[in-house]
Amino acid sequence: MDEFLPKVHDFEVYLRDEGWQSFSQVNEQFDLSGTDPLPGCATFAGTLKYSERSDDLVDPFNFSEFGHLTLSKMIFGSGSGNSDPNTDLDMYCALKYAIMSGGVNHIDTSHTFRRHRSEMVVGKVLHTLVEKYGLDREEVFINSKQGFVGLDAVNGELPDLQVEEVLNSTSLMMRSDFLRFNGLHYSLHPDYLNWSL
């Protein structure tokens, strides 16, 4: 199978769907060609809005308040599966419909999951839901991990090359700021954490 993620727009056009459950309004003029991250983050008002989207279908017990957010007790984990286009398609569809069900607004991901591919799928799903179905970015909470440097399956970068890129782009970090263990590099240096965002 060819790479799926660059073809998400064509895939969504092909679906010709009419929305689903609480996402019944479809923007026919959607554009999924952008690659920039969506601005914003989960908010009190946004997550509360999400929890009320499908209150006729989803038991309110499914949601709990965590700090100032209303989050689903069920978390979509994106760490399983192979680092390949078929798994990208499977994860894309599963996450998209999990969020559209009105019962899942909490996503667990990491750039080390599936060698960077999981976070890319999560981003594409959120772009689709915002652009095509009218989801507000503030309705979904994403927890990720930082500090790890792993193999980038999409760009083919090895962890050693990524470390070199970081060292060349920051003047404050040294190779000793990275710990190597089981083929991965780790760093909690503030410059690396900022770079990895």
Task: Describe the fold and architecture.
The chain is 34% helix and 12% strand. It is α/β, with parallel strands linked by helices. The chain has two domains: 139 residues, no CATH class; 49 residues, no CATH class. A hairpin with a 2-residue loop joins strand 7 and strand 8. The two termini are 30 Å apart. 30% of the residues are buried. The model has no long low-confidence stretch (mean pLDDT 85).
Keywords:
three-stranded parallel β-sheet; 2 domains; 197 residues; alpha/beta; 12% strand; single chain; 6 helices; 8 strands
Strand residue content: 5-15%
Compute the separation of the termini in Å: 30 Å
Figure out the total of helices. 6
Number of domains: 2
Largest sheet: 3 strands, parallel
Q: Which structural class matches the secondary elements?
A: alpha/beta
What's the total count of β strands?
Answer: 8
Question: What is the mean predicted local confidence, pLDDT?
Answer: 85
**Largest sheet: spatial strand order:** 3-4-5
What percent of the residues sit in helical stretches (DSSP H or I)? 25-40%
What is the string of helix and strand elements? HHEEEHEHEEHEEH
Query: Which regions contain 5 or more consecutive residues with pLDDT less than 50?
Result: none
Spatial shape: globular
The value of Rg in angstroms is 18 Å
Quick gist of this model?
The protein is α/β, with parallel strands linked by helices. The chain has helices at residues 8-15, 44-53, 85-100, 117-131, 159-169, 190-196, and strands at residues 63-66, 69-72, 76-77, 106-108, 141-143, 148-149, 179-181, 184-186. It is globular, with a radius of gyration of 18 Å.
